[in-house]
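[step 3/7] fold_predict: job queued, chain A
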Amino acid sequence: MIPVTIFNGKEVAIFGVGRSGLTAAQALQAGGAEPLLWDDSEKGRAAAKAQGFAVADLNSADWSRFAALVLAPGVPLTHPRPHWTVERAKAAGVEIIGDNELFCRQHRAEGSRARIIAITGTNGKSTTTALTAHILSASGRRVAMGGNIGTAVLALEPFADDLTYVLEYSSYQIDLTPGLHADAACLLNITPDHIDRHGTLEHYATVKARIFDGLGPAGVAVIGVDDELSAAIADRMTAGTGVRRISVRHPVTEGLFLRDGALVEAVWGKDAPPVKLAGIGSLRGVHNAQNAAAAFALCRAIGLSREEIAAGLETFPGLAHRMEPVARIGRVLFVNDSKATNADAAEKALASFDDIYWIAGGIAKDGGLAGLESYFPKIRRAYFIGAAAESSAREVGGGVPHRISGTLETAVHEAAADAGVSDAAEPAVLLSPACASFDQFSNFEIRGDAFRTIVEALAAGKGAEHEAV
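[step 4/7] structure written:
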């Protein structure tokens, strides 16, 4: 944990008693502050009391006593309307920040030389964060990874000059971190998302671009330029900041781009020898090529060699439930993409494989399977499960051979049997549901874990050698 001493002897209000809120309270208390916690849910308040923190209704509190309000990132700051704690804080002239702002201020207060890599984007930020941390660790560097992924930022290792923090930022967290400063920062892409919390797509893009505000002249900005909003941000960057553009659609003159399945680093318009991505199962697909390009550029920005990065790419295990290669039984590859809870997410997986035995279904999202029609020719057979099974079958109609499997276990067994007798060189049994999980599983992680367990039992029952890939 990182003790936060910048509010020593002062009272700090904390609203939102989730992972980040409790950790912020611990860090503030360890640094001599007096945190006062509240949550709209009884469960959150009970969790705070169980850890011995002072809990009081901030609605009736004297806000003049607080030095700051630490707000959970899931709480509305501006849209659709500010949360009542935000209005109370503003009326009292109390600054509103998040746990990442505490981290950044403490980093500055201690004069730490620990490096910070900050990563955001509508899509791919978790994979890029994990991949960047993996490459650094594989090269022998000390790394602490967290933020919006995994560990709350203040629960990471204390500052040390030989440590590099690799941090994922959501737009909500950026909004609450006005003092964000990084040695290298990345914006992968911007597509419509969270508009209910930002009002307009343009404001959402403005918030995302703030990840670069604290870079300074020595900082490096890595920006995906394959969407118009991100490309415009790259074009507006100040001349004093090093900008590395990344693209999977066209060459760039300063940065990374994809050519013939390999990453090409361009420096002052001169291309370095390509680094191949082919054969790296955890980085299949064009979307993962963008993630790899971003991680490559970030690692180069803080001094890694091309050889160190290439070696790290080859050994990346991938993230659980995100196009995760689970096992291979004979010729059949089993892939867990349970995180794909809508059609847009499932599209990336369907684009990455041929000869697909597709397991989909759950609770349908708005739009259902619309937009996936161009991938139907790649699907040998679909196996629909859960509440959306019947409606999904109607959507694909005669365009895709399909079965109503009902349950995940039935679907895996049926898909494995069909894939096992196919004539494809590498048939893929792909769980990419394009639906929420809540009809049969409490979250997508449990759904993905169930898929893995079923596949492992299937392999054991066949007495087959199977390997994680």
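[step 5/7] annotate
The radius of gyration is 24 Å.
The mean pLDDT is 94.
exit 0
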